[in-house]
Automatic annotation (TrEMBL), chain A:
InterPro entries registered for this protein in UniProt: NADH-UbQ_OxRdtase_51kDa_CS (IPR001949), Nuo51_FMN-bd (IPR011538), Nuo51_FMN-bd_sf (IPR037225), Nuop51_4Fe4S-bd (IPR019575), Nuop51_4Fe4S-bd_sf (IPR037207)
Family per similarity comment: Belongs to the complex I 51 kDa subunit family.
Keywords assigned: 4Fe-4S, Iron, Iron-sulfur, Metal-binding
NADH-ubiquinone oxidoreductase 51kDa subunit iron-sulphur binding domain ranges (all copies): 334-379
UniProt name for this protein: NADH-quinone oxidoreductase subunit F
TrEMBL record, chain B:
Keyword match GTP-binding: no
Keywords, in A-Z order: 2Fe-2S, Iron, Iron-sulfur, Metal-binding
Higher taxonomy: Bacteria, Bacillati, Bacillota, Bacilli, Lactobacillales
Cofactor field: [2Fe-2S] cluster
Domain of life: Bacteria
Protein family: Belongs to the complex I 24 kDa subunit family.
Name listed for the protein in its UniProt record: NAD(P)H-dependent oxidoreductase subunit E
Signal peptide segment: none
PANTHER family, per database record: NADH DEHYDROGENASE [UBIQUINONE] FLAVOPROTEIN 2, MITOCHONDRIAL (PTHR10371:SF3), NADH DEHYDROGENASE UBIQUINONE FLAVOPROTEIN 2, MITOCHONDRIAL (PTHR10371)
Pfam families assigned to the protein according to its UniProt record, in alphabetical order: 2Fe-2S_thioredx
Organism: Loigolactobacillus jiayinensis
């Protein structure tokens, strides 16, 4: 039975001489989840997932149990299992760590999904930038096939036929959005689809499809093995399990950590086990959570906050992808957000006008603030622009451009204020 | 893609059973195999024919995906990170040093055709910035001296695998 403070996702890290070797993987608990699931009633599997309160680790925190249930009851002879390994959020490298150190755990999770949904085909869509990891995954798949954990009549069960293909991404952040990702797998340009219909009904090649993140899949065998309740106890009642977090920026010990959900944020930042405090000698000022699309928190306001879905949400923050970018007080929020705005202007896929044009306008305004050339009225234009882009964009990219900007405005209004030259006349004309 | 023969191109395409679903894999693999780092028109046409899709479709893919290039790249493409975590963790040192050492701006090839540097949104190496990535290899936690050393080493052919 697993207990708090025990690694579950990283348990096999550095213990496998060859992380793609099936035999040592099995000696360390590997494939125990798959062996167990084939003895279970499928509806019980869904119940365990609900019990676990595993929230999607790709960023949107959608309950995995609910997503699986939707797909389970979708009617179709063909269903697809897709693993989102696009890992596009800057400051995130946990999926890469899982692929590098324990690729078979992901494959086991996807194979369990294959069993539950009678699916024959899985896909792993992996970031183009992760070429080394493609090889690692390919080797792991080959080894799993040799050991009959993929292929035909898996575990000797007649008709349990399932295999997995790898598709390379090629450097488009938007392809991490699940419908864009499916278009990309189909060999098209990766622009998002208009939803609904949901992917559980109309997904890859118009068939019901499951899209989950790498870390979500790696958690599945743990839940099956240990039970949903034990998994939930690793975290909090509103979000079970451990979370892989990626600490970057101005902390001493940058890197990947597995933390129990509910761990005090203060520990993650300052304890020697994790961040180890400021690397620059200057006080830490703000944290960007969950990637570029996530919100920003002021360090001094977060002393008593736990790193859990519920506590962060109560403070208008999110877990997101698990990125924790920490900045010291030498960094102005304006400079920081200008770099964020550049990212979105660069990555907008151009499908909807508000996002395509709006991300440019937002960047221009940020640069204006940065040069301290803003004039009265610019702040109002900025806020209206952010609201427009959020409300009128079709996908999560455009919809989340404003998240970090609004938290910056709320937390550090004085930095925006000094960027405005109050001597100039008020703007009469509205630009849109 | 002068360095790849028709036979090698066919091998890469056949690895994916000439399946149009695998267009991205094929394009990425072909580009990585080439020394000039791009998909030239003859190759784009060749792939289109083998996969039974239009040339336009292939170019649509090349222009949409940032990793795929339609123009010849330098012998060594140095990738640096543009994003916030790296930008505020010493990345400007890399772009400044490269500009100084190579004497070109971002996205410009040096006169000898050896180097080009450009920003990418994230390489998943945020905990190692400032870094430079060449093909698959990350050169982590760089100082100004290490950056100029790296350039001379690359110039001297000390990293034949890259
Ligand atoms: C612009 C954009 C980029 C995204 N990038 C990723 C990504 O790189 N990896 C990922 O797992 N999810 C990403 N997502 C979230 C996915 O759309 C989807 O919610 C997720 O893959 C579902 O898996 P999960 O429920 O297991 O988290 C992105 C979403 C958006 C809108
Ligand atoms: S919101 Fe932006 S990224 Fe998303 S579909 Fe529209 S233009 Fe593309």
């Amino acid at each position: 039975m697993v207990v708090r403070n025990q690694a579950v996702l990283t348990a096999r890290f550095n213990k496998l001489q060859d992380p793609t070797d099936v035999e040592t993987f099995c000696q360390l608990g590997g494939y125990a989840g798959l062996r167990k699931v084939v003895e279970m009633n499928k509806v019980d599997v869904l119940d365990e997932l609900d019990q676990s309160v595993l929230l999607g680790r790709g960023g949107a925190a959608y309950p995995v149990g609910k997503k699986w249930r939707n797909l389970f009851y979708a009617e179709s002879d063909t269903k697809y299992i897709v693993c989102n390994a696009d890992e596009g959020e800057p400051g995130t490298f946990k999926d890469m760590a899982l692929i590098a150190n324990d690729p078979l755990a992901i494959i086991e999770g996807m194979t369990i999904a294959g069993y539950v949904f009678n699916s024959q085909q899985g896909y792993i869509y992996i970031r183009g930038e992760y070429r080394n990891m493609h090889r690692r995954l390919r080797q792991a798949l080959t080894n799993a096939r040799k050991a009959n954990f993929l292929g035909e009549n898996i575990l000797g069960i007649p008709g349990f036929n399932y295999d997995i293909k790898i598709i390379s991404g090629a450097g488009a952040y938007v392809c991490g959005e699940s419908s864009a990702l499916l278009n990309s797998i189909e060999g098209k340009t990766g622009r998002p689809r208009v939803k609904p219909p949901h992917l559980a009904e109309v997904g890859l090649y118009l068939k019901p499809t499951l899209v989950n993140n790498v870390e979500s899949y790696a958690n599945i065998p743990v839940i099956i093995r240990e039970g949903g309740a034990a998994f939930r106890a690793l975290g909090t009642d509103k979000g079970g399990g451990t979370k892989l977090v990626c600490l970057t920026g101005h902390v001493k010990n940058r890197g990947l950590y597995e933390v129990n959900l509910g761990t005090p944020l203060h520990d993650i930042l300052y304890s020697e086990k994790y961040g180890g405090g400021s690397s620059t000698g200057r006080p830490l000022k703000f944290i960007h959570f969950g990637g570029q699309s996530g919100p920003i928190g002021a360090v001094e306001q977060l002393d008593d906050v736990a790193y859990s879905y519920d506590d962060l949400r109560a403070n208008e923050l999110t877990v997101g992808s698990g990125a924790i970018v920490v900045m010291d007080d030498s960094v102005s929020i304006i400079d920081y957000l200008t770099v964020v705005a550049e990212f979105f202007a660069h990555e907008s896929c151009g499908k909807c006008t508000p996002c395509r044009i709006g991300t440019m306008r937002i960047l221009e305004l940020m640069e204006k603030f940065q040069r301290k050339e803003a004039i009265p009225g610019d702040l109002e234009i900025f806020e209206t622009m952010l609201t427009h882009v959020t409300e009128l964009s079709a996908c999560g990219l455009g919809q989340s451009v404003s998240v970090s900007m609004f938290s910056g405005l709320r937390l550090f209004p004085e930095e925006f204020e000094v960027a405005i030259n109050r001597q100039t006349a008020d703007q009469k004309e509205v630009i849109w | 893609m002068a360095n790849i023969t028709i036979k090698e191109k066919n091998e890469i395409i056949d690895r994916y059973h000439a399946n149009p679903e695998q267009t991205l894999n094929i394009l990425v693999d072909l580009q990585y195999a080439s020394t000039d780092g791009y998909i030239d028109q003859a190759t784009a046409q060749f792939i289109a024919k083998r996969l039974g899709v239009t040339e336009t479709r292939i170019y649509e893919m090349i222009s949409f995906y940032a990793i795929l290039k339609e123009e010849s790249q330098a012998r060594y493409v140095l990738k640096i990170c543009n994003s916030a975590p790296c930008h505020f963790s010493g990345e400007p040192l890399v772009s400044r040093s490269l500009k100084e050492i190579l004497g070109v701006n971002e996205n410009e090839i040096t006169d000898d055709g050896m180097f080009l540097y450009h920003g990418i949104p994230c390489a998943g190496a945020c905990f190692q910035s400032p870094f430079i990535k060449v093909k698959d290899r990350v050169f982590p936690n760089l100082t100004a001296e290490q950056i100029s050393q790296l350039i001379s080493d690359l110039r001297a052919g000390r990293y034949p695998a890259l």
